[in-house]
Amino acid sequence: MKPTQDPIKKIVIVGGGTAGWIAAATLGNIFKQKDVQIELVESDEIGIIGVGEATIPPLLATIRSLGIDEVEFIKATQASFKWGIQFEDWRIKGGSYFHPFGSIGSIIDGHDFYQLWLKSQAEGDTPPLMAHSPEAVLSEQGRFFLPFKAAGTPLAGAQYALHLDSALVGKFLRKFSEKLGVVRSEGKVETVEQNANGEIHSVVLNSGRQIQGDFFIDCSGFRGLLIEQSLNCGYDDWSAYLPCNRAVAVQTENVGATPPYTVSKARDAGWTWRIPLQHRTGNGYVFCDKYCSDQQAIDTLLDSVEGKVIGEPRVIPFVTGIRKKTWHKNCLALGLAQGFLEPLESTAIHLVSKTLAFFVRMFPDRQTNQVQIDEFNRRVRADYQEIRDFLVLHYCTTERDDSEFWRYCANMPIPESLQQKIDFFSVAGGLIPGVEELFQPTSWYAVFDGMGVKPQRYNPTADALDYVKLKTSLHSGQQAITNIARQQPSHDAFIQEYCRAPKP
């Protein structure tokens, strides 16, 4: 007996920006040969937040899966490259550490590298953990290259991401999506009409035009026009764990060499970012308004930037958390309409792509199934909770007590799931693995080490190795990374030769 199918024929995306156009590009690419209409509604009257300029490596996988040429994308978005994030003043003032992509070291005779490094430290060796990270070494030297061109070298497994102009990303993906048949309609949604069962039937624009659909994707930003204002899904506020609730952003002209990493510097009431692109630098201050006024934040940011300021600083309020339901009835929320986690680890675009990947796996027909929806919501919430816990780790392990904000962070309540990870790691450097997690062991090791969280001991099985040979191996590996990194071009030289964007 042939299964009954009641396929979706029309998908309506409400809102553009990065989230809306990633959705349009993803679904447009999937259904380009199918009889499925995709229409995106956005209004030029409603601006986009447009400050998410740092990304993580999964974005490149998304771009490649769409068949987009990476060099073309880099040029169009004025992108530069990113090996990781440099954290300054987070543990103590004057201290810094690096969170790289990729992996640190390699397994030796079946032993986890981190455990062997812990043993070497216990034996009195002094090289830091990041001396074994290709990305950290390349960042320190200001160099970049394409890892696949270093096959057979210690740099072969290096991973990179991009710094990019999010407004230009939206424009690029709009052109790409429209070539696939996605229709863009200009207009502001005035009303949302629902069926008797509560599902969304259509949206009505300020022009009076009614747009019907079988399924709707809400990319309307913080206001959640469909998911919240119409479907009343509610919001889980995580401000107790992540107290920052405002950001001020400003752009500056570039000064000096372009570093291949993001800089995150802790401040008295939060932290500032510096993200260098090809044509300008993005700067911002994420802060808590209990400890800092908007004007104080603006003054702090403007005093800290390098280069001539472009435009006026913008203040953006937010509430950290997630919708209680990110998919409800025939509506999926994406981007800021779905939830918000501060941009400390550049996860916003990743959450859009990952949500879409889950959605495609569970793609519904017109008879939406609650079992599917419940599992989807559980998986998306788990992603948010994983990232939330990782962000909280940066704050709660601080040793700073020089401001009211940092004293709160050092003593605030933390999620039980994070406390379990910290307690387990503190015994012997172990990690509690999850399913399809974003942050792999390298990330946890980097932040634990950078924030001074040390295990009580290493795994005793490391004693099975001859220490003299182990020490020689660790030293050789470290030296090999340093030597091969020196042979690579500078970040700016690489961009100039391979992917220099035209001047805007």
Question: What would you say about this model in short?
Answer:
The chain is α+β, with helices and mostly antiparallel strands and 504 residues long.
Helical stretch count?
A: 14
CATH class of the domain at 10-79 and 164-239 and 323-369: Alpha Beta
Low-confidence segments: none
Average pLDDT taken over every residue: 94
Helix and strand content put the structural class at: alpha+beta
Strand order of the largest sheet: 5-4-14-15-16-13-17
How large, in whole angstroms, is the Cα Rg?
24 Å
How far the N terminus sits from the C terminus, by CA atoms, comes to 59 Å
Description of the molecule:
- By secondary structure, this protein is α+β, with helices and mostly antiparallel strands.
- Among the domains are: 193 residues, FAD/NAD(P)-binding domain (3-Layer(bba) Sandwich); 135 residues, no CATH class.
- Helix content is 34%, strand content 20%.
- The chain contains 14 helices and 21 strands.
- A seven-stranded mixed β-sheet has the order 5-4-14-15-16-13-17. It has a six-stranded mixed β-sheet with strand order 7-2-1-11-20-19. It has a three-stranded antiparallel β-sheet with strand order 8-9-10, with no helix packed on it.
- Helix 1 packs parallel to helix 8 and helix 5 crosses helix 13.
- The longest helix is centred in the C-terminal third of the chain and has 27 residues.
- It is globular and about 75 Å long.
- The model has no long low-confidence stretch (mean pLDDT 94).
- It comes from Paraglaciecola arctica BSs20135.
- Keywords: FAD, Flavoprotein, Membrane, Nucleotide-binding, Transmembrane, Transmembrane helix.
